[in-house]
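Collaborator request, handled under Task 6.
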Amino acid sequence: MVKPEHFTDCAKQFLGKYASKVKEKTLKRYERDLTLFYLYLESYGNEDARDLSWYHIEEFFSWWYLRRYTGCSLSGARGIFATLRKFCSWLDEQGIAGLNQTWNQKECRILKGNVERILTWEKEVAVRRSSDSEYWLEQEMEEAEVAEGCFRVINTFQDKGALRDLGDDSAYIVRFMGLISDYIKPGDIISAALCRDDRGLYVNDNIVWFFYPPTASSYIR
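Structure tokens returned to the collaborator:
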């Protein structure tokens, strides 16, 4: 059998191998996960499977999945991590791309934990909004918007944080209000609005538009 080179050809052979080994539901998940990853590769990666690297997987999870895919979810992310790990092992077995090139287990544990933390925040915010009709009203921007953009979290202390604007390098001290205060960590990146009330600048759940792990800083576009 000729070794496939294009990602889609590799995916077809991979799915063919597992067609008789896993349940139909699992096989469909593999196909869905690989199709989603290929959508990222089409625009931002390399479609030649021989050139696949850990950095493609890191970029996919660090910002593409969280921003470009509207169906992102905690269970979905866990499934994609597992599918890509299995696919990368298959590429290694086939001599197409070495596992040491496509997968970094140590970095994967960190990235997976960060992605799960962010998606847990998104899930809890969605639950709060659906069950509490006053939540949107409580979180409305009643004061003037001071700035908006992408900000890196430099450090945090209790419900406060120091932010650096990735656009013009401006620095801000803000309060984190709502659920975001339980999930934000130093190094994270948020696309948000900063607003001011009588206690100073603040950020709440409704004015954080996108939330990324620290690794997104190398890839965000």
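The cover message to the collaborator said: "The mean pLDDT is 92. The first strand starts at residue 145 and ends at 157. Please let us know whether this matches your experimental observations."
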